[in-house]
Amino acid sequence: MGVMVAVEGLDGAGKATLVAALADAAVRRGASVATLAFPRYDADVHAGLAGEALHGEHGDLRGSVHAMAVLFALDRADAAAELRAARDAHDLVLVDRYVASNAAYGAARREEDVDGAFVAWVHALEIERLGVPAPDAQVLVRVPGEVAARRVRERAAADPTRTPDGYESDAALQARCAHVYDQLVERAWLAPWSVVGAEEGYAAVTRTAESVVAERLVGRSSGDIGSGSSVRSDTIET
Fold first, then answer.
1. Spelled out in words, what is the top-level CATH class assigned to the domain 3-219?
2. Under the phi-then-psi rule, with left for phi > 0, alpha for psi from -120 to 50, and beta for the rest, what region is 163?
């Protein structure tokens, strides 16, 4: 069985860049890799509804912290079987956003910290009730809020279809979310964490990614790495 690593961070932090670097580093070590990004707006009805709500549709749905969190949780629950199958078939499964994202953003919206009721509720809902598989490790891409916000704006300018949603455009929310993420790291919530600073650029992220991959795959014999499949990096199809 492989290991599953969840990559977390603010909108615009550079999570996709880190996932790509982690996948490349693992493949160079001879590992097979699968990747999946949440929310799956185009693949799951729950995520699709949440995405539409974030852009002002469905009345007051976006105003309910718990309703939005349930939609994101159901998206992951729908993908749980694919995630377990990927972990059985690959050495490394990389997930762009996962359960901790629900905890951090929801707590931030309610202006709670890690000890508030919302973080515990997310764990009870996703892990205990819905059976979403817990990751083996988590990585926080930590960047200053202004850097993340600038990247969101630049992404929107480059792609007119990427209009910032209600979370991405809320600077105060992003700042509170960053604080909750730091608390989740300090508590080792859900699984052990590593922290990288993406503001240093792709080369630095790649170096950090390589060390993270080495740590995650350490102790596995060369016969285990890549066994059962060709060495590759796959996107999980859902």
1. alpha beta
2. beta
